[in-house]
């Protein structure tokens, strides 16, 4: 029987904030751009939210609500990009998901 890749499921906002939010906080804008969120939307989030944690939450909420193909795998690949450079976090997510690490 083939092993299921848990990284192919859609994340919940609460999971994203628990597992990624704090660590990725300062990179929220770069992550958002890499996930395909328009810069204009990210700038609105930046203006509307004072705290980085809330900016990160709103960015992930936008992603989940607009990208019908949002998966943990997509986020893991974004974390491995040169613009974000959060490979250790990507590896930790793969370990948590019990999924193969692919960067």
Termini separation (Å)?
Answer: 25 Å
Give the DSSP E fraction (strand runs of 2 or more residues): under 5%
The ordered string of helix (H) and strand (E) elements is HHHHHH
Biggest sheet overview? none
Shape: globular
Count the E strands: 0
Radius of gyration: 13 Å
Helix content: 55-70%
Category by helix and strand content: mainly alpha
Mean residue pLDDT: 92
| Unreliable sequence segments | none
Number of alpha- plus pi-helical segments: 6
Give a written overview of the molecule:
With 103 residues, the protein is an all-alpha fold. It has six helices and no strands. The model has no long low-confidence stretch (mean pLDDT 92).
Task: Give the arrangement of secondary structure elements.
Layout (H helix, E strand, L loop, with lengths): L12 H12 L3 H7 L4 H10 L3 H15 L5 H8 L7 H11 L6
Helix pairs in contact: 1-4, 3-4, 5-6
Features:
103 residues; mainly alpha; 61% helix; 0% strand; globular
Q: In brief, what are we looking at here?
A:
61% of the residues lie in helices and 0% in strands. It is an all-alpha fold. It is globular.
